[in-house]
Amino acid sequence: MSEFIKTQEPKKILGHPQGLFLLFATEMWERFSYYGMRAVLTLYFTQALLFDKAFASNFYGGYTSLIYLTPLIGGYIADKYWGNRRSILVGGLLMAIGQFLLFLSGGLYDQQPSGNMLLYAGLGVMIVGNGFFKPNISSMVGNLYDPADRRKDAAYTIFYMGINLGSFIGQTICAVVGNTGRAQDFRWAFLACSIAMLLGTVIFQWGKIKYLVTWKGEPVGETPATPSVVKKTYWVLPLLFLVGLGMLWFDVNVYPILLWVPVFGGIGSLAFILMDKSLNALERQRVIVIYIVSFFVIFFWAAFEQAGASLTFFADEQVDRQLFGWTIPPALFQNFNPFFVVTCAPLMAIVWTYLGNKGLEPSSPYKMAIGLTLLSIGYLIMLPAVKDPLPGVKVSAGYLAALYFFHSVGELCLSPIGLSLVNQLAPAKYSSLLMAVWFLANVVANKLAGTLSSYYPEAGKITNFLGYQMASLYDFFLLFVVMSGVAAVLLFFLSRRLTRMM
After folding, report:
1. Cβ(432)–Cβ(78) below 8 Å
2. For 453-457, which contacts have Cβ atoms below 8 Å and span 24 or more sequence positions?
3. Tally of CB atoms within 10 A around 472
4. Domain 12-501 is in which class?
5. Cα–Cα dist 354/221, whole Å
6. How high is the pLDDT of residue 221?
């Protein structure tokens, strides 16, 4: 019997479609894989491969930015040829293979160039896989609901809990088994990530036919093209691998092209969409809103993504990590973020629902401006801790916990809200492509995060970013206070205008 036969009214769990929780589980294991690997990546660079912090930061920024660049291609191919389901399957399998190549690299970390070749190959395969996985699973969440359904913000918040639950589990396991102080143990973290990614893909395949249906009972994410056309487009996989790997190497070793490629990609995709004569004036206006808010999230993620780079260096070197005689692995401090998100997400969903029922819920741009404000406050809290430090005295872990608390609540105000906003405003024929555009902002942000982390100050070293001199951690953290604070003020100012455009 065909998998696309229309079913009865879909059953609900906690008032939401069952498909939401299938996507929740799939994304949870994928985020285990990504964030577990990310938790130890810069430490693997500096402690096993012996890269210096500046090179490791730029490498980290180049990789994480490409992770968000390839969804622009994967989203387009899914919309036109493969569909969401096929794209998620291919992407998930590729990411599992990529993590396994990192496991092999970790086993040969002291045997060069073999270890580095496997490192580049593993990262390249994951860059391609993520391009097909990331935009498609996010866009499928909104497709489960009626376009006018007010539960979408709550649904994306629940979905976001899956992301952070996976992150919490992945970072915990990878920090414990991989960040042991022994270079040879990093490989076990990568192996755990490969297994988690494979498990998430299997779960998706198991439940996609039964549970991924719209509010009308129609299938979500089916292949729009015929099988013969789909097969003819598989050539894009090796091409993306070669291009992505080349861009990563060039960005890290020659010139930071990933600060500029997404800019041209964003301008080109905007022109492509706006030239579509089938779109009406309101649809074009909403597309412009997506691009404006995407610009502001660059400043959020550039500061937020210090978690995997400079804040990990800070936790390793400047934070008191002793707890009842146990030395906490520095990678484990990143777990403050998913812990706070998972515990606070239900409260945020209740708050937005309550305010919505009262007619007092802030607009999506206003919520995102709140998120930027909380991000700035998080770095502001760190300033007293790092001002005029005493020799040999380390910072209490409580300061880092407070930073991650404000960053996590700010993330809840910005990221799931932004995902929901893109889904609501995007024309149906460009839903995956515009979700990829949302992630395109993360390309610039993650590359900028790596660039900024490379200016992390060390004893006797003064760094200079666009004329701003940083001789201490106080100067370094102050930069993020100002950057995110100014972005918040501007977005507050524009919120009313953007809401009218929506």
Report:
1. yes
2. 453/53, 453/57, 453/60, 453/61, 453/306, 453/309, 453/310, 453/313, 454/53, 454/54, 454/55, 454/57, 454/58, 454/61, 455/54, 456/53, 456/54, 456/57, 456/309, 456/310, 456/313, 456/314
3. 16
4. mainly alpha
5. 32
6. 76
Query: Could you tell me which of 346, 350, 375, 500 has the C-alpha nearest to residue 449?
Result: 375
Output the six-digit token pair for 54. Answer: 């500046």
pLDDT tens-digit profile of 138-155?
A: 778 878 887 777 777 678
Closest alpha carbon to 316 in 50, 64, 47 = 47
Interatomic CA distance for residues 497 and 366, integer angstroms: 11
DSSP symbols for 95-154: HHHHHHHHHHHHHTTTSTTHHHHHHHHHHHHHHHHHHHHHHHHHHHHHHTS-TT-TTHHH
Residue with tokens 């970072």: 171
d(CA 194, CA 78): 24
By the 8 A CB rule, do 318 and 395 touch?
yes
Is 3 a residue whose pLDDT tops 50?
no
Dihedral sign from CA coordinates of 7, 145, 287, 292: negative
The 10s digit of each residue's pLDDT in 130-141 is 989 987 887 788
pLDDT on residue 6: 46
- Residue 216's φ and ψ, nearest 5 degrees, are -95, -5
Q: Which two tokens stand for residue 219?
A: 């299938």
Count other C-beta atoms under 10 Å from residue 200's C-beta.
26
Would you state the pLDDT for residue 4? 43
pLDDT at 499 over 70: yes
Can you give the pTM of this predicted structure? 0.85
Nearest to 353 by CA among 158, 187, 222, 104: 158
Planar angle of CA 229, 128, 332, nearest 5 degrees: 145
Note the pLDDT tens digit of each residue in 335-366: 999 899 888 878 887 887 888 888 888 888 99
Is the pLDDT assigned to residue 437 strictly greater than 90? Answer: no
- pLDDT (tens digit per residue) in 252-280: 888 888 888 888 878 888 888 888 888 88
Contact 465, 455 (CB under 8 A): yes
Q: Are 292 and 497 in contact (CB under 8 A)?
A: no
Selection from 368, 364, 444 nearest residue 411 by Cα:
368
